[in-house]
Amino acid sequence: MAGFNKVVTSYAEAMAGLEDGMTVIAGGFGLCGIPENLIAEIKRLGAKDLTVVSNNCGVDGFGLGILLEDRQIKTMIASYVGENALFEKQLLDGDLEVILTPQGTLAEKMRAAGAGIPAFFTATGYGTPIGEGKEVREFDGRPYILEESIKGDFAIVKAWKADRYGNVVYRHTARNFNPLAATAGKITVVEVEELVEPGELDPADIHTPGIYVDRVIKGNFEKRIEKRTVRSR
Amino acid sequence: MAGFNKVVTSYAEAMAGLEDGMTVIAGGFGLCGIPENLIAEIKRLGAKDLTVVSNNCGVDGFGLGILLEDRQIKTMIASYVGENALFEKQLLDGDLEVILTPQGTLAEKMRAAGAGIPAFFTATGYGTPIGEGKEVREFDGRPYILEESIKGDFAIVKAWKADRYGNVVYRHTARNFNPLAATAGKITVVEVEELVEPGELDPADIHTPGIYVDRVIKGNFEKRIEKRTVRSR
Amino acid sequence: MALTREQMAQRVAQEIQDGSYVNLGIGIPTLVANYIPDGIEVMLQSENGLLGMGRYPYEDEVDADMINAGKETVTAIDGAAIFDSAESFAMIRGGHVDLTVLGAFEVDVNGNIASWMIPNKLVKGMGGAMDLVAGAENIICTMTHASKHGESKLLSQCELPLTGAGCIRRVLTDLAFLEIKDGAFHLLERAPGVSVEEIERLTAGKLVVPEHVPEMQLDA
Amino acid sequence: MALTREQMAQRVAQEIQDGSYVNLGIGIPTLVANYIPDGIEVMLQSENGLLGMGRYPYEDEVDADMINAGKETVTAIDGAAIFDSAESFAMIRGGHVDLTVLGAFEVDVNGNIASWMIPNKLVKGMGGAMDLVAGAENIICTMTHASKHGESKLLSQCELPLTGAGCIRRVLTDLAFLEIKDGAFHLLERAPGVSVEEIERLTAGKLVVPEHVPEMQLDA
């Protein structure tokens, strides 16, 4: 490694080391803030039997949805899959294992993995199918269930700006799961809209410090909008 | 309540409701970023038998150290108390109960309290006196101990700027424990150097969103420096 | 007459208190934002990471990076804060949101709610709903009182997989406003023109009816 | 001759790899920053919430809000990040820091370390040390080999309350550089002019000595 220069210039380099059977954690919420080119590279590489961890699974033909087309995903860990017909079909046909996980629990599982916390208690899901088979314990008279962290072999992240040290900022609500995913990858790859020089980002407002980031690549993004709601003047 | 105006104009209002025996969580690291005027108000109010949760306990005559003078603190939960002679004396004399807690565990206990997580596993302290009497569990072959969250009746916080909604930013490393304390109080009081209008702080760079904050007060600060280290030109 | 979706939103909005943080679910709850009374300041939390959600954007303001939890393009008010999903659910799970309004398939007399799955038929996932019902002290559930076929959705015991156990206290349907306590639905108000008898007929769980059941007051 | 504190820092600095994130404890470890070899980029993590700690400030740069974990006034480099204590220890506990250098009262052949408390005598607290030793994969412990009275601090079993169990792999003393493995101290290097016999005499725990023990290479 040449000091802290984490910038790579090809998507092949960005995803180098991805193998069949790995776990990939992806940032994004719906189609907002998804690492669209890193996902496309996974499709190009053709890695199979992946476990993918992401709040959603994209839509038919875009985002993580494209990994369903060649059945690259074996197990999907997500909170919401409502916008994806191919997903629903593979699930109902039994071609895809799906572990539905409450959104807050999913976010916390990623954060916990990055923070060296192997498990935590939450009230979320107690008394529901999500709590079945999990340890229940009362604190202050209220029941909680034990949830374990999720670590990824890769984390794929979409951000706005990064410097070569891997310091990252996100834009608006495209932040969502991205900073959490970034902490949870053995190899964390961030694709950004803009590269800046170290010192250009205010130290107080770095959303993901470079210590979590292994590779940075500048990409071009379609940024598809899922539901264009407007008001007229 | 008049909408979201959380600004109060006197320290008496800021600390209204503090009672003997309560738990107070305080931000700050050493003397950096401590809510010095809120601490002074606690001294003025004379509340006794307090449990105080803070990384340090100030120094003799400044910061939380002044609450030792009239023995207002019954129990201190802290990670480091090395800079305080009166503290060490009260501890060795048995006048003060001290629960030493590893710094990272302390920070996480505050964060967990604010985040609805009653307990979490950490490797920190396993095999040491800190782990004694705590549940041990292995994850992936490594032992961890179970630590519970700490909630405060009050959280007292020092920040740089706030708007009337209670959105807060901190300055440099005066951030430290403050954002965590802010989430963990039943009543969270923030004293700031500057009040700004809503919209002046960039939404992407709010360090503590107003939802955690109950009262905001503008103060004047001494900001004492513990170890002035300089280099010469 | 049963309430329209807009009227349901209008009635829920009356429950919102000045200076409160509110999370509005997808569907009818989203409409509630349009009926917040004048003079009341409310901060809307959107669980994808936005506190202080504003109106929909004008055409030239639309930004793919600025959406709400329903994936709709939105704006932020002055004084908004944007954060990551872990922080967002720290707020929710930690009990910092004052009011949550969300839809359901079924609720029951013990405050259980089912809203995320119909076995072998519909699997969309729970999204943030399980965290919201576990974290909020104060939840209003909005739903139609019965299915199109006249089957009650207010039950003795939920039949579908639960979203949360024992967490719902208030239900607004198109026919009535009810409180859940002591193992029963307590009828608080009825929709204008809807009779107590109709509500009784369409409520499968135990219903407690006081002597006088006022009609809801809605603006024309 | 036993190493000076400065020489100890110098030797530790040789272990630092290009592009690594390093946390330096109070005392001798802090001095390590002065000896990082040219051409090597290191990012110093200070557990009070600073990644990219820089030099001490000039007099007119001193800022009460800009300190390190030793409570000293410092500066930040270009490309630094500042964050809260939970985030800081997420980095540490999560194993993202590449190297931790910290002092100790005692270490033993099983990699146990005691550094925070002497019962009935000294109670300063563990600060971040317990998290650091639990979180880092790679720790170098710096300490004097023995007390002023000649009592070894490299033991068969720590006698003081532990900071961490089984976590220390490398120890640099004023006399030697040692690796801990298989229940013994393995002598890697000796300080210039210090004999193997002296090290053996002052090491209470099991010591493995290879045939050839090189002297440390230090700049003059």
Automatic annotation (TrEMBL), chains A, B:
Gene3D superfamilies in the cross-refs: Glutaconate Coenzyme A-transferase (3.40.1080.10)
Native species: Cobetia amphilecti
Name the record gives this protein: CoA transferase subunit A
Protein family per UniProt: Belongs to the 3-oxoacid CoA-transferase subunit A family.
Tree of life domain: Bacteria
Pfam family for this entry, one: CoA_trans
Keywords: Transferase
SUPFAM superfamilies: NagB/RpiA/CoA transferase-like
UniProt entry tagged with the keyword Nuclease: no
SMART domains: CoA_trans
Classification via PROSITE patterns: COA_TRANSF_1
One GO MF term attached to the UniProt entry: transferase activity
TrEMBL record, chains C, D:
Keywords: Transferase
Organism ancestry: Bacteria, Pseudomonadati, Pseudomonadota, Gammaproteobacteria, Oceanospirillales
Protein name, UniProt field: 3-oxoacid CoA-transferase subunit B
UniProt xrefs under Gene3D superfamilies: Glutaconate Coenzyme A-transferase (3.40.1080.10)
Domain of life: Bacteria
InterPro entries: 3-oxoacid_CoA-transf_B, CoA_trans_fam_I, CoA_transf_AS, NagB/RpiA_transferase-like
Keyword Transferase among record annotations: yes
SUPFAM superfamilies per record: NagB/RpiA/CoA transferase-like
Similarity-based family: Belongs to the 3-oxoacid CoA-transferase subunit B family.
Molecular function per GO: CoA-transferase activity
